[in-house]
Amino acid sequence: GIRRSINSQLMMQRKSSSLVRVEAKATTCDCYRNMRKTPIYQSVTDLIEPTLKGSDIELVDVEYKKTGKTWSLRVFIDKNQGVTVYDCQRLSREIEDLIEIHELIADHYVLEVSSPGLDRPLKKESDFLRNKGKQILVKTYSPINNSKTNTGTVKNFANDTLFLENKKDTLEISLTDIAQAKLIIEF
């Protein structure tokens, strides 16, 4: 019956993206006015990162956006051995408790904790270093060698600069000039 369908659903989620949804409702608070100055993702990030210290789980990204009438808080995590459903469940409970304790979000929202997947965007130094030696696609705000789209192998990342080796040379791309970067997945 119910238990079997729940287990089947969790197994499907584990295979796809280790997604766990948790409905939550936080209370209204005075600190909500202050969050307009600071993006919610930064406030949530500041709450979550201390929880992850000392664990093998890395916070990849946080998104807070409205889809239709529903607000969604999406937290993407990763770890070397791969994210499990248990990791997502445990962290979603901790995040929900932290948000409620700190009265961080006044609106009704859906909390999603998941792994970002293979095609996730590369945004931070750790993302590029983890993919050292791999092929990536980089879109930039300004053209490099007459193109805003470049592909190549990640050679290094240092001082907020990506060193990307293509067929001709090694490009040095500032992190602030990267509009989007993704791993090229080869099958």
From TrEMBL:
<dbReference type="InterPro" id="IPR028989">
    <property type="entry name" value="RimP_N"/>
</dbReference>
<dbReference type="GO" id="GO:0005829">
    <property type="term" value="C:cytosol"/>
</dbReference>
<dbReference type="InterPro" id="IPR035956">
    <property type="entry name" value="RimP_N_sf"/>
</dbReference>
<feature type="domain" description="Ribosome maturation factor RimP N-terminal">
    <location>
        <begin position="47"/>
        <end position="119"/>
    </location>
</feature>
<feature type="domain" description="Ribosome maturation factor RimP C-terminal">
    <location>
        <begin position="122"/>
        <end position="187"/>
    </location>
</feature>
<dbReference type="GO" id="GO:0000028">
    <property type="term" value="P:ribosomal small subunit assembly"/>
</dbReference>
<dbReference type="InterPro" id="IPR028998">
    <property type="entry name" value="RimP_C"/>
</dbReference>
<dbReference type="InterPro" id="IPR036847">
    <property type="entry name" value="RimP_C_sf"/>
</dbReference>
<dbReference type="Pfam" id="PF02576">
    <property type="entry name" value="RimP_N"/>
</dbReference>
<dbReference type="InterPro" id="IPR003728">
    <property type="entry name" value="Ribosome_maturation_RimP"/>
</dbReference>
<dbReference type="GO" id="GO:0006412">
    <property type="term" value="P:translation"/>
</dbReference>
<dbReference type="Pfam" id="PF17384">
    <property type="entry name" value="DUF150_C"/>
</dbReference>
<protein>
    <recommendedName>
        <fullName>Ribosome maturation factor RimP N-terminal domain-containing protein</fullName>
    </recommendedName>
</protein>
<keyword id="KW-0963">Cytoplasm</keyword>
<keyword id="KW-0690">Ribosome biogenesis</keyword>
